[in-house]
Write a structure and sequence with these properties.
The complex is a heterodimer of chains A (about 575) and B (about 675). Chain A is about 20% helix and about 20% strand. Chain A has about 575 residues and is of the alpha+beta class. In chain A, the strands form 3 sheets. In chain A, strands 3, 4, 7, 8, 13, 14 and 15 form a 7-stranded antiparallel beta sheet that branches. Chain A has a 5-stranded antiparallel beta sheet with strand order 1-2-12-10-9. Chain B is elongated and about 125 Å long. In chain B, strands 3, 4, 7, 8, 12, 13 and 14 form a 7-stranded antiparallel beta sheet that branches. In chain B, strands 1-2-11-10-9 form a 5-stranded antiparallel beta sheet. Chain B has a 4-stranded antiparallel beta sheet with strand order 19-18-21-22, with no helix packed on it. Chain B has 17 helices and 22 strands. The chains are: A alpha+beta (about 575), B alpha+beta (about 675). The interface between A and B is large, with 162 and 144 residues. Strand 13 of chain A pairs antiparallel with strand 12 of chain B.
């Protein structure tokens, strides 16, 4: 019922020609895929390339927490798996507009040794084919054949030594960058896992940051993963019929949704001689769009199911929305529920009486009371414009922020503008800061490709992404002195796409704590009518997980990711 | 060729002759590396130091578990048969005793993404342990649906009242069960007891690392362990005396191996999987490191598919023992110069001026059929062609039997002590773990007394240490009698948790077992056999000689698993160099643009829809005239709820609607002349 109205709503949205922006990793995040590391999609990234802004870089990582010294076989991509990167640019056309499919082949150049590399020969030597489809997977064109995957960075003897490959790892990485027949730059290989999070803290019942002065630890520190990196000309990803120059930096026609997946054949038959045979239809076993969705939003009973869906399936699914309307994490940020049980989240408190009226706590009504009222007329909350998408019913407190951030992106439309210029009315028009609206209803990383790139050496560059842009737009005189659309640094940050540097764990926890609501003028409970930069807001903004950056520096050029850790560097 | 071998084994059994061995496997073969749940990592078998009437059997699975590996962490898998196999009679094909462990998983609270919350545990495993005494034809469940301890996630999840409210040690102790057939059993997470510099070893043999510090690649990692402490009498060969005839009683030898099997067909459906068909072995382990550093990559998956009993008919694998790859790197005529870390490990190329054990050389083959070997294990009449199958197979006399039959207490497999210079003469006994079934197993003579772990002679070098003591240290080297020498109960006579199997196996490849029986190193000049070459091999170290945490003195002996919130749960984050998230600061907040403080802000009513009444809650920021009026959908005024000057604050107005028809109403809120907001009121 709800879903049919959503379908109608999405249609309505498209009819109105509206266009929108969003917020939210997944390592061994669901029970089944945790046992199939080769097919486990751990993260996706999508950002305008800082050194080549006419392109967008798409990255999908697989094979979680690879131990750099995990010999003798180390790690590589799996055979009989379809690794796919999917792009949607037109919500009115069901399914992907552009799909990249990677398939890998392993061979042993010297099967007489137990070493992975010896005397210039490499075992489990891995090559790939890349195919591209621009018609939703109906037809495929091979754009890279015999692409080379660099070997694992075993150590200096195996890589640099004359008894090994007699080269350097940097040159192996460089040599592995290839240009596809259709113009994309492509790299597939092992890298330092760019994600960072205190895994041990967060999953010990939310001990993030670790309490009692305990040393924060990067649970992904010194681990590698296998990445597929593609640098694609924006024109290739642009919706059909759209002029190559955006009308403004939030041009709704420049929004793409990006997600990745891994699929296996339905049937595996083990033979009795140590081999196996795969057959049957391809079944999706892993997917990822927004980081941490299936790790910290979807509860355990639904994780395997979530992995099996495509984002396009989600529009007709009715079992998952409530985890966004009323996320489990919100229970731990509300003193009326389990707030006291998770002391690490003490600075994160959700608005329970924003502007004296609105309660965004678990199971509460949020803005539902405004439904149908003249106050919301003409805003995104007006059923006439957006249907029942954002106010589907009572008791769905986060239908106005978390649900759209994960499922549609956020439109540049009231109330989704900064409080700057709103004169106290959160529903009024304010300063634009995001438009990554692509209302297909599914979990994707949504990026507005029109948004300029924040240079990585800009003094305002921040891993807080859009949260930082919002803070600048609200408080920095350069940006807060007018309500005009202008570029604010980090508008190109998560959840408007995802840069390698973005601290998505922190941003998502802040989002659950209502930071997006505050950005549009739904201030925290301690707002007294004057300065909205209250202690509650400062507490949320300054909340840190204790692990604020990756353990390795990124590279200034494609593939941007850092070289993998050597097996000799880690323990 | 193989049929001859079979005849040899038959001959051996006929002679009722008797026999000790050498050798871990983490992600060791390509296929199983991609199936961690079914990956058998290590096997241990030792006489229990605190309960010497029992043998402790252990098999570990699921390698390299990160203590911080949430949200799902690690456990055994469903739809897998985990088995520990025991052979005690090579005359009977197959296992005499098999333990099979199977698991079922439940989620006690599927509504959370946490693994443990409020006393409930997700992905909770229970196991059933079955035992077969007839080679797997029939099974008896000896433990049923026993809970497996959870992952040691951290203090909040384990110790605290919002978690399980118990210490991890309590959880482990509660998980130890006694089976109906006398076994004590622990199945659950543990610190991985193995230790090795993985990163160094597999970087083309950089072990110990040259010019840098060694690192234990398994430190801070956990495994899933199956530990079974079994009364010796239930493992004894049928008909064997309950008391051993001596400490090397040949009837007291068992062969231990472990495996994991899956059903042949896995079918994926959306978000689920199912299994059907016959069971197929996907992982096995007996001697440590066999499939890791002896079997080359092209044969590893095949090796995992075999049982030890199938190896007797296999012809593909023996050359890797006769001429092991590792020996190439300990021989200056081959690739010795390419692996500087092994420079102290050099194989006898000219032992006693006659015997070359380099790869492709003949070893002791020239002695075949000569009077010198008459009556020894090398005599075809005694042992068939087992030990001297042909030329060019130099290690058929040491490495092959260590891995495939165990070592008999017969000439020449006795210490040089008492041999008066003739390696083929009778010497001092030091090992008998001979169980000649031809397959890769961990062979343990259960009659050998345990060396107390606090004995000053206790050594992680196992039999190598016993050999050194028997050759060089009084009172052991003053006679050639059979007597207990400390560490005779060590690897490769079984495997204790402490045994440094990597070092021992590398020493064995370098010929230390040959030296122990009197086939001295090339630099032996007729005087003391303790030459520089021998000392080099004996003092060779990998740089990682012991586990990263101490073992426990009582069952299950393993250290508790590392906690996810502890020092092993990730790399320390560098707080000092963190990026400044708010370089711009909050100083420039523009009050006018953001907040011009209107008289009344938004209001809301609750409940909505309603039946008898609804309450409108509204906030006033400064003193102003307030009017709240309710209209029906035709615009007719129904009621004025508020019409007065009011001070700043939060207020409520109640709209009584019991007498009104169901339908839609509007509440218009005005301040002064300005309409501020209209609420839509829905009466049911």
């Amino acid at each position: 019922m709800l879903r049919s109205s959503l379908l109608r709503l999405c249609s309505a949205l498209l009819y109105f020609g509206w266009a929108l922006s969003a917020s939210a990793s997944s390592h061994r995040e669901a029970p089944l895929i945790a046992n199939d590391p080769l097919a486990d999609n751990t993260d996706v990234y999508a950002f305008r390339s800082p050194d080549d802004p006419n392109t967008v870089t798409l990255i999908a990582c697989y094979i979680p927490t690879e131990l750099p010294h995990g010999g003798p076989n180390f790690h590589t991509f799996g055979e009989n798996i379809r690794y796919e990167l999917h792009v949607d640019n037109d919500a009115s056309i069901p399914g992907d507009e552009v799909t990249y499919r990677f398939t890998f082949t392993r061979s042993n150049q010297d099967p007489t040794t137990f070493f992975r590399i010896r005397l210039g020969q490499e075992n489990l030597y891995t090559t790939y084919k890349c195919e591209r489809s621009t018609d939703g997977g109906q037809t495929w064109t091979t754009i890279v054949t015999n692409g080379k995957v660099p070997p694992p960075f075993i150590g200096e003897r195996s890589i640099e030594g004359p008894v090994g490959l007699n080269t350097t790892y940097a040159s192996l990485m460089q040599q592995a960058i290839t240009t596809a027949s259709s113009g994309e730059k492509v790299f597939c290989g092992p890298i330092d896992d760019p994600f960072y999070v205190d895994l041990g803290g967060v999953f010990d019942l939310g001990n993030l940051p670790r309490q009692g002065g305990a040393q924060p630890r990067d649970g992904i520190g010194q681990f590698n993963c296998h990445a597929i990196c593609i640098q694609v000309p924006i024109t290739t990803l642009l919706k059909a019929g759209v002029a190559p120059t955006p009308v403004n930096i939030l041009d709704g026609n420049f929004v793409i949704g990006f997600w990745a997946s891994a699929s296996r054949r339905a049937t595996r038959t083990l033979n009795t001689n140590g081999t196996y045979t795969d057959s049957g239809d391809w079944v999706q076993v892993s997917r990822l769009g927004m980081p941490l969705t299936n790790e910290a939003v979807i509860p355990i009973g639904f994780k395997d199911y979530w992995n099996s869906l495509t984002p396009y399936d989600e529009i007709t699914d009715t079992s998952l929305d409530n985890f966004f309307y009323n996320p489990e994490l919100a229970l731990y940020m509300d003193n009326r529920f389990f707030g006291a049980a998770v002391p690490a989240f003490a600075p994160l408190r959700i608005q329970t009486k924003s502007l004296g009226a609105f309660d965004f706590g678990y199971g509460k009504d949020g803005l539902w009371g405004l439904k149908g009222s003249p106050a919301v007329a003409g805003t995104a909350l007006d059923d006439a414009i957006f249907g029942t998408l954002l106010l589907p019913g009572p008791g769905m407190a986060r239908s106005v922020d978390l649900w759209p951030i994960f499922h549609t992106g956020v439109p540049n439309f009231p109330p989704y503008q900064l409080a700057t210029g709103k004169n106290g009315n959160p529903l009024a028009a304010g300063k634009p800061f995001i438009n990554n609206f692509l209302p297909n209803g599914g979990d994707m990383l949504r990026l507005n490709m029109a948004t300029p790139v924040t240079p990585r050496n800009d003094p305002n560059f921040s891993p807080l992404g859009i949260v930082s842009a919002a803070v600048l737009g609200l408080t920095n005189p350069t940006y807060a002195s007018n309500a005009n659309l202008e570029f604010i640094p980090n508008m190109d940050g998560f959840p408007n796409g995802r840069r390698l540097e973005d601290d998505v764990t922190r941003i998502e926890l802040q989002a659950v704590s209502g930071i997006a609501l505050a950005a549009i003028g739904l201030w925290y409970d301690d707002f007294g009518g004057t300065n909205p930069v209250t202690q509650d807001l400062l507490d949320v903004l300054t909340y840190e997980t204790g692990v604020n950056q990756n353990d390795k520096a990124f590279q200034p050029s494609f593939p941007y990711v850092a070289a993998p850790w050597s097996g000799k560097e880690t323990e | 060729m193989r049929s001859i071998f079979k005849n040899s084994l038959a001959a051996l059994l006929l002679f009722a002759s008797l026999s000790t061995a050498l050798a871990s496997s983490h992600r060791e073969a390509p296929l199983i590396a991609d199936d961690p749940l079914a990956d058998n990592v290590d096997v241990y078998a030792f006489r229990s130091p605190d309960r010497p009437n029992t043998i402790t059997l252990m098999a570990t699975y699921v390698p390299l578990q990160l203590p911080q590996g949430g949200p799902n962490y690690y456990s055994f898998g469903e739809n897998i048969r985990y088995e520990i196999h025991v052979d005690n009679d090579p005359a009977k094909p197959g296992d005499e005793i098999i333990y099979r462990v199977t698991f079922e998983m439940t989620n006690e609270d599927p509504s959370t993404f946490f693994n443990i919350r409020l006393g409930k545990q997700n992905l909770k495993m229970r196991y059933t342990l079955a035992r077969s005494d007839n080679g797997g034809q029939s099974w008896v469940n000896i433990l049923w649906r026993v809970p497996v301890p959870p992952t040691n996630i951290g203090q909040r999840s384990i110790d605290s009242p919002i978690g399980l409210g118990k210490s991890y040690e309590t959880l482990v102790n509660q998980a130890i069960r006694n089976a109906s057939t006398g076994e004590r059993v622990y199945v659950g997470p543990a610190d991985d007891p193995f230790f090795v510099d993985l990163g160094g070893a597999f970087d083309l043999g950089d072990l110990p690392r040259q010019g840098s510090n060694a690192r234990d690649g398994l430190a801070c990692k956990n495994v899933s362990a199956i530990c079974i402490q079994v009364p010796i009498y239930t493992l004894l060969k049928k008909g064997a005396q309950r008391s051993p005839s001596n400490i090397l009683d040949p009837n007291w030898v068992i062969g231990v191996w472990a495996s994991a099997s899956r059903q042949a067909t896995r079918t994926l459906t959306a978000g689920d999987e199912s299994y059907s068909g016959p069971w197929v072995q996907v992982s096995r382990l007996g001697m440590p490191l066999t499939n890791e550093v002896v079997i080359p990559v092209g044969m590893k998956d095949y090796w995992n598919s075999l049982t030890p009993y199938q190896e007797i008919n296999d012809q593909l694998l023996d050359p890797f023992f006769y001429n092991p790859e590792l020996a190439l790197y300990m021989d200056d005529d081959l690739f010795g110069g390419a692996v500087p870390a092994f420079s102290k490990l050099r194989i006898q190329r000219n032992s006693l001026g006659a015997f070359d054990f380099g790869n492709g050389k003949d070893g002791l083959f020239p002695l075949k059929g000569t009077p010198a070997v008459a009556g020894t294990a090398l005599d075809d009449a005694v042992f068939g062609t087992l030990l001297l199958p042909g030329p060019g197979k130099p290690r058929s006399v040491d490495l092959w039997p260590i891995f495939h039959t165990g070592v008999p207490n017969v000439r020449p497999y006795q210490l040089a002590t008492g041999k008066n210079g003739n390696p083929l003469a009778a010497g001092k006994p030091f090992i008998h773990n001979f169980l000649p079934n031809g397959g890769d197993m961990l062979r343990l003579n259960m009659a050998v007394p345990p060396t107390p772990r606090n004995d000053p002679n206790f050594s992680s070098l196992g039999i190598v240490s016993a050999a050194v003591l028997g050759l060089t240290q009084p009172p052991y080297n003053t006679n050639a009698n059979l007597q207990f020498i400390p560490n005779m109960d060590g690897f490769p006579n079984g495997r204790r948790l402490e045994d440094d199997v990597t070092r021992i196996e590398l020493q064995a490849v370098a010929g230390v077992a040959l030296a122990a029986i009197g086939l001295w190193y090339d630099d032996f000049g007729g005087g003391s056999p303790v030459t520089q070459d021998l000392l080099d091999v004996l003092t060779y170290t990998t740089g990682v000689e012991s586990n990263d945490v101490p073992f426990k003195s009582g069952f299950p002996y393993l250290a508790l698993p590392h906690a996810g919130d502890g020092d092993c749960g990730g790399t320390p984050a560098d707080a000092a160099s963190r990026p400044d998230a708010f370089a711009g600061g909050f100083s420039g907040f523009n009050d006018r643009l953001v907040n011009s403080a209107p008289d009344a802000v938004v209001a809301a009513n609750f409940p909505n829809p309603f039946s008898d009444a609804t309450t409108i809650r509204y906030t006033i920021e400064a003193t102003t005239d307030v009017n709240i009026s309710v209209f029906d959908r035709s615009g007719k005024l129904i009621e004025v709820l508020v019409n007065q000057r009011m001070d700043a604050g939060q207020y409520e107005a109640r709209f009584e609607s019991a007498a009104l028809p169901a339908g839609l109403y509007f509440a218009k809120i005005s301040t002064g002349a300005q309409s501020v907001q209209v609420l839509k009121l829905v009466k049911n």
